[in-house]
Write a structure and sequence with these properties.
By secondary structure, this protein is of the alpha/beta class. The protein is built from 15 helices and 25 strands. The chain has a nine-stranded mixed β-sheet. It has a four-stranded parallel β-sheet with strand order 4-3-5-6. β3, α3 and β4 form a beta-alpha-beta unit. α2 crosses α3. The radius of gyration is 23 Å and the shape is globular. The chain starts with a helix and ends in an 8-residue tail after the last helix. The protein binds methylmalonyl-coenzyme A and adenosine monophosphate. Adenosine monophosphate (AMP) binds next to β13, β19 and β20.
Length: 503
């Protein structure tokens, strides 16, 4: 028996004529197209020398073909390695060196630059319209493929997540991690073949790729694919849709749109939110306007989804609900891992079939983040209330979440500190009305240095993806430090608290 993610998804595929993806420009792909298209692409990958266990790195615009490519990788037994379209060449160079992919599929515009990188793999292209060399290579191949057999513990994907040390780590996700989580979410959120999901998330992260796409595939449902968030397009699609998954910024932006009404959302059965905290105010405002209570859930790249508010029963604003079936929680003391009584605040540790296998080629980092009994230390500071609802009250890790994207301050600080005229810097997240948190930097200049905000921002262009760039830079005489010499970021956050909220 083949335990691959694809085999487990395929067991739920409906009639081949059923729509799998419809784009907002009217293109339609059926489940039959999905099977044939991913088979052709799997043949093309094998013809390019891809073997089971190889990594396929992919940095492409969102298109239905990009989903077929993901499924083709899984069918060929390779690990899919999606990359944020915002990553710069400098960032890509690191991923190529670390993951050593057999093939890199990119936008045609990036082809020459990637091919010129040291240790560049074979480069193929795929554009936003679903055209490119990989599609040409697939065109005349057979429409069936003998899927490579995989065990539950074999890799299906590697997703890079930045680390507090500033070096990105590849989270190794197995067939079982992804398949089991999708199975659980289908049941927990009551997805069926009748569902039509509004899909406006990027497809290079857990949320848009696994939570949204795998769940719909596992239910045999359909998706309306949009290249990016656009409130007009989303509201216009609601009468044909049943559900939407979003980050909190989706909801604050929809609330600013006069078209968001009870009537406009009357065909929808479910709105979910995750990747960043949803303010209780947003939850209430959305219910007042539409009558829908957003269902908030919580996950991580390393663990997929851990917790969710209930489908039936109270969806409690400001909480992320209960552990998903099969997922165990332990709220622990940070240093010792000692379990704390219910109601006390500690670090959340999780264990279950959803939890990843470890970081790619980083056994020490993997060991440091797991307890001996298999619990993974999330770094999220949490509390479980008397009714069992999980509250995320903070983060022990130095992490900023901006519009659902993670920014690790250390990575940005390293780039700023390397600039001429800079003594040191501290990068912090400040309350932001659109992105939840906005990235800002406090910089100490060398005496007499003429460095200004614009010059720093100009220097950072091209080094870091744009969403990681500080939206403001402040100059300070020195960074506040505690008696141990550690930078007190909370002091900086308090000092600059209103910068984004007051415009
Ligand atoms: C765009 N910009 C951003 C962000 N997005 N800056 C900070 N944070 C962001 N998230 C920059 C753009 O580069 C541009 O800057 C300026 O902000 C305005 O861009 P705008 O057109 O408003 O952006 P947008 O294209 O509308 O995108 C905003 C967005 C998008 C819709 C919130 O960021 C998004 O789709 N976020 C979802 C991320 C996501 O899927 N996260 C899931 C991770 P400039 O003008 O300088 O270029 S998976 C995860 O976290 C876990 C596992 C989980 O639980 O799900
Ligand atoms: P990532 O590295 O992209 O997987 O981000 C995972 C982190 O996002 C978690 O460790 C949490 O800190 C945060 N996160 C995800 N969902 C939520 C949520 N619903 N509420 C608060 N934080 C969340």
């Amino acid at each position: 028996m083949n335990n691959s993610l694809y085999a487990r998804l395929r067991a739920h595929f409906p009639d081949p004529d059923k729509i799998f993806i419809e784009t907002d420009t009217g293109r339609r792909l059926t489940y039959g197209d999905l099977e044939a298209g991913s088979a052709r692409l799997a043949h093309a990958l094998v013809a390019r020398g891809v073997k089971p266990g190889d990594r396929i790195a992919v940095q492409v615009q969102k298109s239905p073909e990009a989903i077929l490519l993901y499924l083709a990788c899984v069918r060929a037994g390779a690990a899919y390695l999606p990359l944020n379209t915002g990553y710069t060449l400098a960032e890509l160079s690191y991923f190529i060196g670390d993951a050593e992919p057999a093939v890199f599929v990119c936008d045609p515009k990036m082809r020459d630059a990637i091919a010129a990188l040291p240790s560049a793999p074979g480069v193929e292209t795929l554009d936003a319209d679903g055209r490119g060399t990989i599609m040409d290579a697939a065109a005349d191949r057979p429409s069936t493929f003998d899927d490579v057999s995989r065990e539950r513990d074999d890799l299906a994907a590697i997703l890079y997540t930045s680390g507090t040390t500033g070096r990105s780590k590849g989270a190794m996700l197995t067939q079982e991690n992804l398949a089991s989580n999708a199975e659980v979410l289908v049941r927990y959120w009551r997805f069926t073949a009748d569902d039509v999901l509004i899909h406006a998330l990027p497809i290079f992260h857990t949320h848009g790729l696994f939570v949204a796409t795998n769940v719909l595939l596992m239910a045999g449902g359909s998706m309306i694919f949009m290249p990016r968030f656009d409130a007009d397009t989303i509201i216009a699609a609601m009468p044909r849709a049943t559900s939407m998954m979003g980050v909190p910024t989706f909801y604050t932006r929809l609330l600013e749109h006069p078209g968001l009404t009870r009537e406009a959302t009357s065909h929808m059965r479910l709105f979910t939110s995750g990747s960043a905290p949803l303010l209780a105010d947003t939850h209430r405002a959305f219910e007042d306007r539409t009558g829908h209570r957003i269902l908030e859930r919580y996950g991580m790249t390393e663990t997929n989804m851990n917790a969710s508010n209930p489908y039936e029963g109270e969806r409690r604003a400001g909480t992320v609900g209960f552990p998903l079936p099969g997922v165990e929680f332990r709220v622990a003391e940070a240093e010792t891992g000692r379990a704390l009584p219910q109601g006390e605040t500690g670090i959340l540790e999780v264990r279950g079939p959803n939890v990843f296998k470890g970081y790619w080629r980083m056994p020490e980092k993997t060991a440091a983040e797991f307890r001996a009994d298999g619990f993974f230390i999330t770094g999220d500071i949490v509390k479980i209330d008397d009714d069992g609802y999980l509250h995320i009250v903070g983060r022990a890790k130095d992490l900023i979440i901006s519009g659902g994207y993670n920014v690790y301050p250390k990575e940005v600080e390293s780039e700023i500190d390397a600039l001429a005229g800079v003594v040191e810097s501290a990068v912090i997240g400040l309350p932001h009305p659109d992105f939840g948190e906005g990235v800002a930097a406090a910089v100490v200049r060398e005496a007499g240095a003429k460095l200004e905000e614009d010059a720093i921002l100009a220097e950072l262009q091209g080094r870091l993806a744009r969403y990681k760039l500080p939206k403001r830079v402040f100059f300070v005489d020195e960074l506040p430090r505690n008696t141990m010499g550690k930078v007190q970021k909370n002091v900086l956050r308090e000092r600059f608290d209103n910068v984004f909220s007051t415009g």
